[in-house]
Specification:
alpha/beta; about 45% helix; 3-stranded antiparallel sheet
Length: about 425
């Protein structure tokens, strides 16, 4: 699939590259798996002097060092007879001999389990070669661990990053562009697919790889995720296992509760059979460390918190697969797909609110709304009618603070509506 969007990110990388002609620039690029970090950087380093190293977590330190040494030899940075016997020597060579290069380490956080001494070695070189014209780009998918390496004051690389970039998924606009490349024309079908896959470019590239051109949303789901030996059948479990490690069970339970509509703290706590105080730390980590949920609060009551899943595919998996894992393990595809088809509108109704919000934000940026919005979000609260407390929800509420104008939006999805 051709390279789509990322114009702002590429421009920012080019700016840093120009700065690196006079000094060392160290960049940290983070983002969830499949968001397109590697593709972005490979596009950026085209026609530039660059070295690319993938830190594969299944290799030993010795194996990885041997592989990286061969890459240096291939690029004639070391001679055929030179030996690189340690990570210290390896990084000394990079910083000393790679003037005006871009050096990329993909999944850099994997050094945490392979050889943590690398972080101290990189720190020493960053301090020693501050004036070296060189760009170091460190990519990471395990958001929690990656952030800890650079933001924890106890870690060697704290304060050694020139700039950070957290890569976000594609917006609705560019996801639709990807689907147009896959010959989709019906907006309803495109929205449903986006509602499941979100803005993660890898999933659209996988559709192209397996010739899933202009297929119905349920055919995409079945082929990529549900059928026996589906290309992405372990996608969600792989993401979560890598993020959570061995601490996964309570995180899974919380994510499942939110996916099933338990959005308030007391509802989630009740669902997982724990006290509210026992899960608050986990909710904070799921939002701030792992970026898998988002805390929503109405503008006039910041204490009235509700939680939502931030990753569409993970939301889909917990809504349709997690409770059906026995059938999933038995490859009972017809039963799982029957559940998907019967319950999909209920799932997609909430996703449609998010899509509408994205659409309005883009229109707002172009000045195409009846008022310029300073704020747009869901709203909920309560009112009393005949001494009875009634809960009120507004799908989307937009505000223009200066002109004191309000935009009320209702988002409804139905099979009977003509989406065109």
């Amino acid at each position: 699939m051709k390279f789509i969007n990322r114009h702002k990110e590429l421009q920012k990388l080019e700016e840093y590259y120009i700065l690196s002609q006079k000094q060392l620039i160290t960049l940290a690029i983070s983002g969830l798996r499949r968001v397109g970090k590697t593709t972005l950087v490979k596009e950026f380093i085209k026609n530039k002097k660059a070295l690319y190293f993938f830190v594969y977590d299944s290799k030993t330190s010795t194996e990885l060092l041997r592989e990286f040494t061969e890459e240096l030899r291939h690029h004639k940075i070391i001679t055929e007879l030179e030996a690189v016997s340690s990570w210290k020597i390896f990084f000394d060579i990079l910083f000393q001999r790679c003037k005006n290069y871009i050096i990329v380490f993909d999944e850099f956080q994997n050094f945490y389990n392979i050889d943590k001494s690398v972080f101290s070695i990189v720190q020493r070189n960053c301090d020693e070669y501050k004036a070296k014209p060189l760009t170091i780009i460190l990519l990471g998918s395990l958001v929690g661990l990656f952030r800890n390496i650079f933001e924890n004051k106890k870690e060697p690389l704290y304060g050694r990053i020139s700039a950070s970039l957290h890569l976000q998924p594609f917006t609705l606009r560019y996801s639709l562009e990807a689907l147009h490349l896959l010959q989709y024309k019906e907006i309803e079908e495109m929205l449903k697919i986006y509602g499941i896959l979100g803005g993660f470019p890898k999933y659209y590239a996988t559709m192209e790889q397996f010739d899933l051109w202009n297929k119905k949303y349920f055919e995409i789901i079945e082929y990529l995720f549900i059928q026996e030996n589906a290309p992405l059948e372990a996608e969600v479990t792989s993401i979560l296992k890598q993020e959570f490690g061995k601490r996964s069970s309570l995180y899974y339970s919380i994510l499942h509760s939110i996916a099933m509509g338990k959005t308030k703290l007391h509802e989630i706590a009740s669902s997982v059979h724990l006290k509210e105080s026992s899960i608050t730390r986990h909710l904070v980590e799921l939002e701030s460390t792992f970026s898998l949920i988002k805390a929503l609060r109405p503008i006039d009551n910041q204490k009235n918190t509700r939680y939502a899943l931030a990753h569409p595919l993970i939301h889909f998996w917990f809504a349709f697969v997690y409770d059906q894992f026995s059938h999933y393990s038995l490859q009972d595809t017809p039963r799982i797909m029957a559940g998907v088809k019967s319950q999909f509108n209920a799932f997609f109704g909430k996703r449609f609110e998010d899509i509408c919000a994205e659409f309005l934000i883009e229109l707002n940026g172009k000045g195409k709304l009846p008022l310029q919005l300073d704020y747009l979000s869901n709203w909920w609260g309560s009112a009393r009618d005949n001494n009875e407390r009634t809960e009120i929800e507004i799908d989307l509420l937009g505000l223009n603070n200066q002109q004191k104008q309000i935009l009320f939006v209702e988002c409804k999805w139905s099979d009977e509506v003509n989406a065109a």
